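step=encode ok
step=design start
structure_in=
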């Protein structure tokens, strides 16, 4: 069968790569794809982004089903439109995607359905927002309400930084346009973050492997927030007891709440969690954000660990039978290290030739994000360029394998963290 993956990032490369491993799959098209998917013999780029054109293609080529990677087409209603055309597609409807496309909607939803999250206020008036910040004090978190490509969150350590974020988002020349015309201001939560991603068919839920990403640009979680500089799976912090709590206290109430609101949730659901210190039974557990898609870069290590036929899992999700689905996971650890362009995240440089790539092996794959061939040699075309992802029988060995491959990968001005997986290593030392 033929499949279609919508998107152009590392998440979509990893998803398409995994689907192409299935003996049932003849071809995977990626729309619009990137330099890595363009070079892969089992994948084919499709230079289309218009929804009507994609529908016409899916009909003409008899695409068995489509999977949506990024948030923008979900917020634009691609799932609704494909379904109306009688085509099978995995993802949330436009209404359900509001859990990501509007932080104010998500916060109100969580409060309404007693899902634990940080205290917050929502503002469109800059003066009122500043007054709220002064009343609450710092540290404090300022978020653009809408989609801002992972750059609409400021974790302000002092009042000046928080007030500057309000000027940046709500000022006369708002940095995020309509996405920043409303801001959500949240209490600062301390603890350890984890990514908990599940598949949903409107009624049933199938959890994916746990993972943890690294949002800050620099080693030691310093520097500005980014879309993610690396990730690993599994995440030791999510013990079996904590896993059960997350399902019971967050995921199931979310599914039930969406159904209660008349918006059954289908697709991938990503809960970004803040986990407080202490024994598992008493740790504080709060939702930082919902994403209505797979995480990037979490997808890369997660997909590397999938051993079963992921196309079958997706068919169960489309048929409403996820309760009958299982995923066979590689018991080893996967670590993904992002190589970013010079100037990322503020002003990433594009067009630099990628002069060397580590060869892909069974246990180490380089997934592309911001790359292009454009009829010539491989070049950088975005902020996060590559995610070198390795699999090994311990976090330390997976980390070493990933960095060995990183050292074989070259382009001008590349940036990467040298400590991806440090929390898992620290957790291992605590239990030695």
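sequence_out=
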């Amino acid at each position: 069968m033929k499949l279609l993956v919508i998107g152009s990032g590392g998440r979509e490369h990893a998803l398409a790569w995994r689907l192409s491993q299935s003996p049932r799959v003849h071809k995977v098209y990626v729309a619009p794809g990137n330099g890595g998917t363009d070079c892969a013999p089992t994948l084919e780029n499709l230079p289309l982004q218009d929804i009507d054109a994609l529908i016409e293609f899916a009909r003409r080529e008899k695409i068995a089903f489509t999977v949506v990677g990024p948030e923008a087409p979900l917020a634009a209603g691609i799932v609704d439109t494909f379904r109306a055309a009688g085509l099978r597609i995995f993802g949330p409807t436009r209404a359900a995607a509001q859990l990501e496309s509007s932080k104010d909607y998500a916060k109100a939803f969580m409060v309404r359905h007693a899902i634990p999250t940080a205290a917050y206020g929502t503002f469109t008036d800059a003066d009122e927002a500043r007054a709220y910040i002064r009343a609450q004090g710092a540290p404090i978190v300022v978020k653009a309400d809408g989609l801002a490509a992972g750059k609409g969150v400021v974790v302000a350590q002092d009042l000046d930084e928080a007030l500057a974020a309000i000027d940046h988002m709500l000022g006369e020349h708002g940095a995020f346009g309509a996405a920043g015309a409303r801001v959500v201001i949240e209490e600062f939560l301390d603890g350890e973050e984890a990514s908990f991603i599940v598949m949903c068919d409107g009624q049933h839920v199938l959890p994916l492997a746990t993972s943890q990403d690294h949002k800050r640009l620099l080693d030691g979680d310093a520097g500005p927030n980014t879309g993610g500089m690396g990730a690993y799976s599994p995440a030791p912090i999510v013990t079996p007891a904590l896993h059960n709590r997350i399902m019971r206290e967050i995921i199931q109430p979310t599914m039930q709440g969406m159904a209660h609101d008349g918006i059954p949730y289908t697709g991938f659901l990503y809960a970004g969690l803040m986990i407080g210190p202490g024994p598992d039974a008493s740790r504080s557990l709060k939702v930082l954000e919902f994403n209505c898609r797979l995480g990037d870069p979490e997808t890369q290590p997660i997909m590397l660990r999938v051993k079963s036929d992921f196309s079958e899992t997706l068919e169960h999700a489309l048929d409403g039978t996820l309760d009958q689905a299982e995923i066979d996971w590689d018991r080893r650890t996967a670590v993904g290290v992002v190589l970013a362009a010079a100037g990322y995240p503020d002003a990433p440089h594009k067009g630099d030739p990628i002069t060397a790539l580590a060869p892909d092996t069974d246990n180490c794959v380089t997934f592309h994000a911001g790359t292009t061939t454009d009829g010539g040699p491989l070049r950088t075309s975005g902020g996060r360029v590559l995610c070198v992802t390795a699999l090994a029988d311990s976090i330390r060995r997976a980390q070493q394998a990933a960095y060995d491959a990183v050292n074989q990968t070259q382009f001008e001005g590349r940036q990467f963290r040298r400590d991806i997986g440090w929390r898992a290593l620290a957790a291992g030392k605590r239990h030695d």
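step=design ok
step=annotate ok -> The radius of gyration is 21 Å.
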